[in-house]
Model the fold of this input.
Amino acid sequence: MACCEHCFDEEHIVEFIRDFGIKGDCDYCSSKDVFIADLSDVGEFIRECISKAYEDVDASGGLYWDSEEKEYTAGQYIEEILIDEYAIFSEEKLNIDEQRQLLDDLLSESGPDWHDIKDGAVDPLDGGSTLLVLRDEFYGLDSNKYVYSWNAFKHSVKHHARFFDLGQIEDKRDAILAPVLLLLDEQRITLPAETTLRRAREAGLDLPKTPKEIQNELGPPPLDKAKHSRMSPSGISYCYLSDKPETCLSEIKPDVGTRIWLGRFLTKIDLNILDLVDVQAQYPDSIFSPDYDHDKNWATIFLKSFAHEISRPIKGESNSLGYIPTQVFTELIRSKGYDGIKYKSSQRPSGVNYTLFCGPVNATDSDDLSLSSRMTCFTEWMRLTLLKTVSIQAIDYKAESAFFDREQSFTESDMLAETDIKDEKPEHLKDF
Done:
């Protein structure tokens, strides 16, 4: 028996049937002179595609078995996956009962025949009654190519080669980080001209006199004063900005009584930015597509975790070592044509930070340096529109409840000194 191209809405199954190049009449939807294919061929194709993403619940090592309830806690039958979730059949040509019948026939014709069964063959789908779960669902979050790629990159730049790529072509950092870089292409945005950004720094003893001098003072630090930071090592000066004044102040963490210069800048041109704030949801292609990538099931979760790691402060490790991966990553992103990175503030949950790859005025004084070796001056990308001098009067720290919060109450007796507690010896020790 044969089904046809009109029996299905799933484009890759339709394409599979058309590739046979055979025309005839359909045994299921009654279409005439259409592309058809034998049930066994189409059924085998569907089985192969199902196996890309799903496995028998029993193959999960008992992870979904509830020993107390004596039942599985997760899983779908193939009918639920193909008819309800993927909707592979044409609702216009086949009603629900006809869809179920066609699915049963596809599985029956593509499964082991009675000769194979007699010899011990087993149908892994058991005619459609096998309970299926997403492959690696429990482990995929921590064991996918994006996690491996990022961890390998971090180890490489921390402990193997930092300034030059060494070894084979597959050891080069572009190759190591290739899966992550491909994901990040989806996070490329344009920061339009006339966007307002803020920058803060502790005020000097004297305020420069001219607007141009004030602008230069509020820009990125001179090269000899550029400190080691999340995105840039000592000596490389980037421009760190925020979306709001409160975010700026939270980032520099001034003491009470400190005078601060707050600058408001306006971008002069469109800038090509890597956005790690608004993470775009990632979905794998259809399981019937030759481009199906199973790891893509965890791409969105990885991107959110990656964005958090890029923005968080380093603890429990030397800053000089802990920031190396983000510093090298930033330089790699810069080499890919990005003008900066947008990321969440680690000091203010609602705040947004920007690191723009532009440097201070007079970043290079040597005439021997070619123009290509000079970093863009920040005044080519933005201009100062407002300066405000503020004095920090108070610092507001807020503690938010979380699932791991703990509270203990104590009584006066809890506070008695050990010497105040009568310590009687056990009977068998009183003679000592």
Observations:
- The longest helix spans residues 39-53.
